[in-house]
Amino acid sequence: MFFLYDISISLMAFGMKIASLFNEKVKKGVAGRRDSLKNVQQAFAKDDKVIWMHAASLGEYEQGLPVLESLKIQYPDYKILVSFFSPSGYENVVKKKHIADAICYLPFDKKNTIQQFVNSFQTALFFTVKYDFWYRLLEVLNQKNIPVYVVSALFYEKQNFFTSGGRFFVEQLRKNVNIFFHQTEHSLKLAESIGLTNSMYTGDTRYDRVKQNVKNFTEVPLIQNFIQNKPVLVIGSSWEAEENLVEKFINENSDTKIILAPHDLKRVPQIKQRFGDKAILYSKLEDNQSSVINHQLLIIDNIGMLSRLYHYADVAVVGGGFHTSGLHNILEAAAYAVPVIFGNQYKKNPEADALIDAGAAKSFSDENAAVAFLIQLFREEDKRKSMASLAGKFIADQPDAATIILNNIHAK
């Protein structure tokens, strides 16, 4: 079966090289992999002990970070490696302040390539996040007796593990992974149903992260001046659908201040033009009332402050759920005890269903229904505060996943 797997990896690598001729994102990933071995050889001496976290993309990196940060404290003399599959993860993290000694793309999962990569440093502990499994890598790590873990593991019914053709992959996971730390009890039951009994429920490490965000909150300059003690709607990581929603809401509710952070800063000029004099850019805010009193909408034209902006919200709308782009982080808003609204086109987001079940969030199939509910929330303070309270309680009740995980993993 490994023969077929190796062929599929070779075809994937070839396909990505062809696609890189036409797609800039894929091109970055292909080019970056050429430097992966050189990057780790420059960062680590042969006798350095390395804690290695692999994440498919940015979301998985954020999930794994609470564990990685705790491991850094527990093993202060060990080096840190973070590998990515996706350019969107690599490009975002490499530009930011981080704790890693080296960041690279995971090489293509070919046996010789992976052996050369792993042999270039001493891995003391490896963990991957969620469900990004590479079977030659797991095999090589196991052969070297390196502890392997899966953090915030998430199994769901449509994965190939639950088909007759998935038995090979299940067996590789059973042999090569020490412990699966599951983010939901449903995932744990699914894993155990196919023989992955080396599993335990810990909860989702993202809850640890958002709790930490609230604990470490610092004021965002000039926001209070913009708000003017009025109710606040925060639109996080907006796409066009969420901006359509804002246009409908702003025409129905002139008493609410709106803060909008687009997912793509390239669209800021287009958004500003759309809302005209009703909007002001964050970069144009000044510490005086005249700069904000005539503006209802504040457009955030920088990155890095969204998680703090939810502190000021009475209600939040989080982008990505009205189309197939993928729902953005709704937990950042809920952690500040804020009701959360989003579209209903989301997959593999158990936290969305959990927040809805808790009465702390609502999803809608179209923007008009969402706008109607938003108007209702801002008119009915009791309903809004009830949802807010339920959101705060939901986050507070989640287990401290990173602490549970740290009590069950050990580096060489």
Write structural notes for this entry.
- The model has no long low-confidence stretch (mean pLDDT 93).
- It is globular, with a radius of gyration of 23 Å.
- Helix 4 links the parallel strand 1 and strand 2.
- The longest helix is centred in the first third of the chain and has 18 residues.
- Helix 7 runs parallel beside helix 8.
- The chain contains 19 helices and 14 strands.
- 45% of the residues lie in helices and 17% in strands.
- The relative contact order is 0.10.
- The strands form 2 sheets. The protein has a 7-stranded parallel sheet, with helices on both faces. Strands 10-11-9-8-12-13-14 form a 7-stranded parallel sheet, sandwiched between helices.
- It is α/β, with parallel strands linked by helices and 412 residues long.
